[in-house]
Sequence to fold (301 residues):
Amino acid sequence: DNIRKFLQLQLTVNYVSVALTFIGSLMAGGRSSPLTTVQLLWVNLIMDTLAALALATEEPSEECLKRQPVHRKAPLVSRRMHMTIFMAAAYMLGLTLSMQAYGNVLFKAGPLGGIEHSTIVFNVFVLSTLFHMFNCRKLYEEFNVLEGLLSRSPLFIGVITFCFAFQVVAVQTFGDFMKVTSLRSEEWLGCVIVAIGVLFVGFISRLIPVCESSFEKTFDGSMLDEDAKAVLARVDNAVTKAQATTEEYKEGIYLDKARRLRARALWNEARHHHLHVSRIVNAFRRTRVDRLEEGRHFGVM
Fold:
């Protein structure tokens, strides 16, 4: 799951970076790119190193431990992930291009293409990337992206805090190195407000029903090495013997029950025979007594 979380962020930001560089250059008439080389290096540092520390070190949740294993033929990027990546990338790209086209007017940031305007474009892109890292913590239909943040992701909090702090310091201090200029407090607030919208987009993406691919649950041991095959054969023999023992045990129980039923049937038959014979003997006895009584009666006469 952690690898998928990391890929979810990587693919989103890479798609946006490539599209932004290409489309932004066309919008600028080929004169410049929306992001400078140093700014792209900072974005890549966030994606490659810091995001890996933040997302790949998260401890598994109870739902993850109870979930069935992923089929080996299942794609690494699921359809749910594609939905989240597509919607987040579309929002981030549309937002950044809108800032490049109208950001100077919305933020009153001087002339179009000026350094203050370029700083706002860069700042919005980085902040939306950081907020999207919260979306990438979830891979399925979970809506609470803050769930388990304190208990299972302490390093995530540290990485996000460092990235936000460094972004503020870089924009406000490293102007010549990062090719940016310091922003006013209202500009920072505006950048945060528009960038945090990616969280809402991630929430909406999980409301859209997605049908995941299904695979037949069969096991193919042909791809295993010899040691694994030997272990598998021993386990299979042990399971077969255990099943045979269980079947023999069940057969013994059923045989014992059959013997008891047969004995009970024989007992009932003997009892019925005994009672029937007793009635016949008693009938003969009564007939003999009656004959003797009649003989005595005729003798007296």
